[in-house]
User: Fold this.
Amino acid sequence: MATATTTSEPDEVDQPQTAPPRSRAGQVALWTGVSLVGAACWTVLAISRGESVSALWILFAALCSYAIAYRFYARFITYRVLRADDRRATPAERLENGSDYEVTDRRVLFGHHFAAIAGAGPLVGPVLAAQMGYLPGTIWIVVGVIFAGAVQDLVVLFFSMRRNGKSLGQMVREEIGVVGGIAALIAVFAIMIIILAVLALIVVNALAESPWGVFSIALTIPIALFMGVYLRFLRPGRVLETTAIGVVLLLAAIIGGGYVEQLGLAESLTLSKETLVIGLVVYGFVASVLPVWLLLTPRDYLSTFMKVGVIVLLAAALLLARPVLANDAITSFAREGNGPVFAGSLFPFVFITIACGALSGFHALISSGTTPKMVAKERQVRFIGYGGMLMESFVAISALIAASVIDQGLYYAMNAPAGATGGTPETAAAYVSGLGFPATPDALAAAAAAIQEPSIISRTGGAPTLAMGISQIFHEAFGGNMQAFWYHFAIMFEALFILTAVDAGTRVGRFMLQDTVGNVWPKFGDLTWRTGTYIASAVVVGAWGYFLYTGVTDPLGGINQLFPLFGIANQLLAAIALTLCTTLLIKHGKVKYAWVTGIPLAWDLIVTMAASWQKVFSSNPAIGYFAQASRYRDALASGQVLAPAKDAAQMQQVVTNSTTNGVLQSLFALLVIIVAANAALVIVRALRAGSLPTTEVPFERSQLVEPAGMVATAEEKEAVRQHVTAGGRVAGGGHGGGHR
Amino acid sequence: MKAQLVSSPLAKAVAGVRWYLREIGGTARWEAYLEHCREHGHTPVSRGEFERARTDAKAAAPGARCC
Assistant:
């Protein structure tokens, strides 16, 4: 009997909910101080207009808000709403098998979890959203993460942990219903395809016509292969040693890229977007059928190292350089919705452009599945789930700052589609000056020369802009003549984990496909059947490859066509996850706390449905996919060619792409509505009954003693000491050992 | 363990970083396995075999990487 409700747990009342603070007065003073600093920073941001505002105000407003949210709100959710119970054994303890179920030290698991959730998303979204000004993005990233994103990650992690690490799709099927489950499964698969296509598109846009970038990124493949072989056969288990070698080679590859011209490779490495698409598709296919140890795992080590390294460097550089924001607090594009980077007004589009960093549905796939099988003690979900997401949000804030410190003429010259800028410094300067951001052709050419790129005009996708911002901040902070190196360092950093995400995502998609088709055709579900593996990989790669190809060839600019679809898809996935969380809270009889996930769910549904509605039904061709399709179809019928399309074939292309995107957009929204409707039925039944049985596994007493947060309190240390003296075990490598 | 005996903050920090790297890099896991074998009187497999078995088991269920 796998059903149980939380009320059946033994002696819940005597559970010590909180340890008494050592010094209450000290605590009060500390948190009053943090609140005052935070409030002061927000006030400066709120009232500064048209004067030079330091980027540090944003940084500290965010950090203080995170600290308060973690200390109070995350604690409230973990202890009062979810009633995480350290007397209850986690799946890692009960089912430990040395591979997926494994009791893991909380700080180590935090590292693994963060590496899995943080990718290019929090870097790219804020860069694009900077078109609205720095303030809307900052507010959404901070408020969104505190009340939505981190809550989702924490609650999904908790519920999955209470169900032995079941996946999101499995939980939706078992706790909401088969219809909702199937809709969720299709939604997850389709959303993953779009996410992979957009991520790949960002890489293509960053590498096209950039021989330095192509040289460095291409070299990561042999470097990773070498690391894989080294780690598997030459020095098994020496992960740090292997990573150190890899990092040295990687830095050499970035430096070496600066000499492509001297090496005579510049011409052969100047690749068009179309060539890069073919390269990426072939790469994605090969990488997803190769054993993970050969390519995926070693590159994952490299990208994690780069990720942590860049975040630490960027935080330090921001403090050293103290850059001033060049962006406006709120631009006219936020009000009028006519921005060149992406169309649509502040509501709802800022909230879907910035997904990762504020609220990312994709995290629900990681919070259910891998991480919950490794948690040592229940209360650690606060540190791992909520804390991990706060860290990702910090990355997003840094990216927003990097995009907001560069000259705004340069920002729009880089981010407006080629159809608008005309592609040359002269036409681009005229275009952005017309937008109200004065720029000269010389300044744009000089900016490209500073980073040793042939051109920076219409380098859309967010990655080049972020790299430009990072290179400027690093250049200011650390001095030297290294801006070109920092630019390519940042490009490498983004491309690395996008490639890791593409590789891992293709593999996950392949497994999903094999598993699903395996239900009707068992042979296809057999993972050892090579032909089946090849077919499934080809289908997944072909699907995202199609969108990638249409993206790079789209006359209207792929990023501004596909990014809204990507953002809405990610937020719709979040809607599915939050629907599940809310349903579960109510089924567990915690209706008085259902607002904790219910409010972010309501907000997310309003945002995504409003955005979907506009993208499907808007009569403005710049926003509505179908309006756009019919405008071009009508023009085509009357023999006209509408700019930026250059001929009838491109006109037809716009019609096809817009129609496909519109259909997908409708499909995503429909799937979410099905899940939500199915959940509503379950919620009504649960409300009538007071609570409903769930698939939560029954209580089993834990034999482990472990601190809950990153730093152990005095009481926790004492409890661990007594436990170890009595011969008990703790998490981590050694029995009864470890540094604490 | 040793880390609890050292007292200066710097030495503590160094020990902490070293401990973290050993944990996250998997050395601690391998040593725990050796200790487990000693306790139960098993003959441990080679490091290569141990690590390959672990990697292959993990490969059977790939973890997603977020965007």
Q: What stands out?
A: Chain B touches chain A at residues 1, 3-4, 15-16, 19-32, 35-36, 46-48, 50-52, 54-67 (CB under 8 Å). The radius of gyration of chain B is 16 Å.
